[in-house]
Structure formats: C-alpha cells, structure tokens
Design goal:
5-stranded antiparallel β-sheet; elongated
C-alpha cells in the first residue's frame, strides 16, 4: 500500500474487529442471562415458539393449582360427611337399643330420644357450617338447580353435569321395556281350598329375595285368608299376595331382576289347582298355557322380575328396578321412575338442569371440555332419607318415628337409607378426588415437564457451546485488535519514499 489518505487494511481490520466484538458481546449476554434468545432479532421463529410454550406452561401450572384447590375443597366436604356418618352410626345403635322394648324403661327410651334429638341437631349444624373460604359445601349450595320435574319421575340424583355458562341441559328418558315385579299365580279353582278331607292339608313354600316361609292350609281356608297369611310375612319373604278371581297373585314387593318369587308345593293334599306365570303385559293376569298342576310341582317354580330398559339423552342406561342411570363425561344422573312411568314405554321429559353444582376448571384451557362438575346435595336431617322410607327428621321427639312411642322399624329403615346416601356421597367424592383430580394433577405434571423441556431447548443457552464460542470470540477480538494496530502503522512506511 502506497496511499496515506485511505488505509484499506485498517478499514478491513476495523470491520472484522467490530463483528468479533458483536459476537463476543452476544456470547457474554447469553452466558449472563442463561437465554439463547433475549430479543426477537436473536431468533424470530424461535421467539414465537418459545413464547407460545411459555404461555402453555403458565396455563398448565394454573390448571395444576386449580386441581389442587379442588382437592382441598373436597377434603373439607369429606371431613364434614365423615362426622355425619359417625353420628348416623350412633343413631343406629340407639334405635337398636330402643327396639329392645321389654328390657328398657320409659325413662331410658326418653333418654335415648334426647340423644337422638341432639344428633339430629348436630347433623343440621355440620350441614350448615361446613364451608371453604365462606362457601357452604353441605347445605345444598353446591347442588344442581332443577326445574320441570315430570310427574312420572319419583326421584333423581344429578351427580355431575357440564353446562355452558348461561345454558341448561334437559334430561330425557325413553323407556323401551317396562320394569316388572317377579310373580306367580296360584290357582285353586274356587274361593276356598278343598283338599278332599278334613285331615288333609295343603303345604306350600313361598320364597322371595328376602327369605322363605312354609305355609300349611287346612281344607276350607278361603283365598282371602291365604293371602293374609302370606302378607303377614311379607317383610320376611319380600313377597306380597292378593286374591284375583279363583286364585292368589304372588308378587315381589320391589321391581327388578334381583327380585324373584318361587312356589314349591310340599304337599298338595289332593288340592286341585296349578301354578302359572304372570303375563308380561298385565301383572295380575296369568299367562295361558303356563300352568303346572300342584301334583306335578316336584321342584320350586320360580319367576324373576325385570329391570326397566331405557335410554337417557341418547345413552343406553344401566338399570335396577325402576331406576335408570348413565355416567358420561357430560352427564352423570340417576332417575327413579314411578310405577306408571316405569311400566309404560315412551318418552319422558324428566327434568331440566339449569345450573348449580361445584364447577372446577382443571385443564389448561378455559372451556367446557376442561371443566368438571360435581353435585353435593343438602345433608341436613330433613333431606336424608327418601320419599318411600321417610326422612331423618322424622326421628325427632313427637314425630312418627321417634323411639319412645313411634315406629322404630320405620326409624331403622330411615337411618339405613341415610347411611347409604352419605356413604355413596363420600364414595363419589372420593372417586372424584382419586380418579379425576388425582389423575389430572399427575398428567398435568408430566405435560408441564415436557413443555418446560421443549421451551428450554428452544430458548435456553447451551453453556458448553456458548463458552466455546466466547473463547473463540475473545481470541478473534485480540487478533483483530493486533491486526488493526499493524494496519494503522502501515502509512508510516510511505514516509520512507519521501
């Protein structure tokens, strides 16, 4: 180079030094922040991907927190229910003691009644006071809101239902096959038995789902007396009797496939007649051609009941007796039909769910698919029990099922029904915690790990590679600095020409 005004070598050295300084500065920034992408210019596509992954991480972390909070809410409700269950067990003991009528004085019964009244008050207190951050959990506050219950619906339970904000969900039941009692028709051919002799007897064993009983009837016993004798032991056998024409209709007290009626003629006593099955279209009518003569009954003749067959909102229901139930992601409901509703095929607009329930958002997105709901009904004494058995508050002083002068058998049935209801509610809440919340928390934890790893691979600094790049940049900066010094000295050589 023989020019002085323009030092091209110096310009070249300055440009390279500037580039090396930029590279060194970037390496220092990445190593100090721990991030490979500190601004959009570092990697525009990578920035977009990493920000989206960061958003997903935040949503997943919030969902985990929501699920853990839901678990805490259920724990509080479970604690209240556990104590109510203990109170009901104590009630069961007091009723059992009070039933020992001849062994207790009136004063002891009255003392038991005082304890029962106290227990009922305690149950009401727990139901009204159990809360989470001011939200009552067991007083019906978290139950579903229902309108338009059909007259053919005797009872129902809405365990869970997903409903869009401001919306509702109609529950429609289509009965495709009727519920039936188990039943047999015992035909004697006359209004009274005629065994052919004063010393002859007609001996028959009648059995049902609760047990069996052997009956012995003398000649001349009217069918009305036969039915009355059978009905005396209905609580023992689960079979009721009614006179129909020249025979007796025997039917199970309940509907369903777990009910049965069997008749075994132990000694026909020369009594004419036969055992027939009942018609599926009319339970009080014998099926023609199904007769088995008394003398030919060598083994018990048995008939079983039938569960109602139905669909609920287009889903095939599982049934027991007159109760149909479905359990899906969007609807978990049990519907008990009246006898008229369960025995007539057709569509029933059962009721409409307009809102309510405990709703938790346990997914990363805020939509109905990531929400779960569970209904927690009122467990006050006036709500525990059923229409058929009665309600728990009927055990109070002066009520129909008090233990001093009330119906103690009815009282025990009410307590049994109440224990069953509370136990089922606790089981349902436990299943919700274990199978919904627990599995959700675990799966979200895995998703958080994988999302964090993906975000890290895009955005975080690789320290091994970046340290090597730092060392390289430092060497290049030093080299460029030395070269620039040499290039700046080159114009001095031109002076040698002068």
């Amino acid at each position: 180079m023989s020019q002085i005004n323009t030092n091209v070598s110096s310009l070249l050295a300055q440009r390279v030094l500037g580039q090396n300084n930029n590279t060194l500065t970037k390496s220092l920034e990445r190593l100090s922040t721990g991030l490979r992408i500190n601004r959009g210019a570092d990697d525009p596509a990578g920035l977009i991907a990493s920000e989206k992954l960061r958003s997903e991480k935040a949503a997943i972390q919030t969902a985990i927190g929501n699920a853990e909070r839901a678990d805490q809410v259920i724990n509080v409700a479970e604690g209240g229910l556990q104590e109510i269950n203990a109170q009901l067990i104590e009630l069961q003991s007091l009723i059992g003691q009070s039933a020992n009528d001849a062994g207790l004085s009136t004063e002891e019964k009255e003392a038991n009644q005082l304890q029962i009244d106290s227990i009922l008050q305690t149950i009401d207190s727990i139901a009204s006071q159990t809360s989470f951050e001011g939200t009552k959990l067991l007083n019906g506050n978290l139950d579903f809101q229902i309108t338009g219950q059909a007259t053919t619906v005797a009872d129902f339970d809405v365990n869970a239902a997903k409903i869009a904000d401001g919306g509702s969900r109609a529950v429609n039941v289509i009965v495709t096959a009727s519920a039936q009692h188990a039943g047999l028709f015992v035909s004697a051919g006359a209004a009274a038995l005629d065994t052919g002799g004063a010393t002859s007897s007609f001996v028959v064993e009648i059995a049902g789902s609760k047990g069996s009983r052997e009956f012995t009837f003398a000649s001349g016993t009217t069918l009305t007396s036969v039915a009355s004798a059978v009905n005396t032991f209905t609580d023992v056998t689960g079979v009721s009797a009614a006179v129909s024409g020249t025979g007796v209709v025997l039917k199970s007290t309940e509907f369903g496939s777990d009910q049965f009626v069997s008749v075994d003629v132990i000694n026909d006593g020369s009594q004419a007649g036969a055992v027939l099955t009942l018609s599926t279209t009319s339970e009080d009518t014998a099926t023609p051609g199904s007769a088995t003569a008394f003398a030919s009954v060598t083994n018990a003749i048995r008939d079983e009941g039938q569960d109602v067959s139905a669909t609920i909102n287009g889903i095939a229901a599982t049934s027991r007796g007159k109760v149909a139930q479905i359990n899906t992601d969007f609807l978990d409901v049990s519907v008990e039909l009246t006898t008229a509703g369960a025995q007539a095929a057709g569509t029933i607009n059962a009721f409409t769910i307009t809102g309510g329930g405990a709703k938790f958002n346990i997914g990363p997105n805020v939509d109905i698919g990531n929400q779960v709901t569970i209904g927690v009904g009122n467990v006050a004494a006036r709500k525990l029990g059923s229409v058929d058995t009665g309600f728990l508050d009927e055990l109070g002083s002066g009520k129909n099922s008090n233990v001093v002068d009330g119906d103690i058998e009815a009282a025990q049935k009410i307590v049994n029904e109440s224990i069953d209801q509370v136990s089922k509610l606790r089981g349902r809440l436990g299943a919700f915690q274990k199978n919904v919340l627990g599995s959700t928390i675990r799966s979200l934890g895995v998703a958080l790990e994988n999302t964090s790893a993906a975000e890290s691979s895009v955005r975080d600094t690789d320290f091994a590679a970046e340290t090597a790049e730092l060392t390289r940049s430092q060497i290049l900066v030093n080299a460029a600095t030395n070269v620039l010094a040499i290039a700046n000295n080159q114009p001095q050589n031109v002076l040698g020409l002068l």
